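Full entry
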Amino acid sequence: MNRVGNGRTRRTAAVAVGVAVVLTGAVACGGGKEGGAPSGTSPAASTSASASTAAGTGSAAAGPGAERLKAFALAPGDKAGRYEASEPLLDEPMSEVYDARPAACQPLTGLGKAGHTAQAYVKTDVPGEWQGVGTEILLRSYKDGGAASAVKALAEAGRQCAGGYTEDRALAEAKILKVEPVKAPALGDEALAYRIVVQDVKDQNISLYKYLTVIRSGPVTLSFRSDAIDTKDFGGVPEEVVTAQWEKFSKAGGTAPAS
């Protein structure tokens, strides 16, 4: 496929030719495997306490661990409207191991490499049919106010990088042409959403589209990154995917305050 970083088929091809590079980068990011040991050892940059905390953490400064976080996430086979969650190809989205230039734009490419280390994360894929919209979901748990700091960094990146930036990938460079804020869901403590226009690597006259939505609930961020194997603007992260993930997160106690 000629569309770099856009669609489920291209992600599969990238795994086939560059999995060693990607997995090495993922280890360097400090990410843990789904349901495995907590990721990262360094504290978050912010010293402010999180506004609220997920159920069962027992501390306003610490989010849920890996096993608890896994219970919050959509599992393979879970339905999201016309979509169905599946086993992810990689432990982390490939974008999480990419680098952005300038560095201030990093949160738009990989929130996990933006200086606010999560103590645990879990990933789910919600693929689309051919030329349908595929979505990668990443739940991250932080301590010491790291979740709020990560969202603040994302908001700042959205402002500074509205005119575009460069994304260094494992096998190529991609030119981000434009970053535009779009309506975010009214969920959690705060939420941000962006429409990201990408220049096709093989044909500079073609623009591709990605959408990013991030919701914060206490010390947990829920990140949704959608794309499609098509040049048509598909309009955003599928609402039914966000709704299904949020409902499971809420029912599992992710939004309840600690006792």
Observations:
- The radius of gyration is 17 Å.
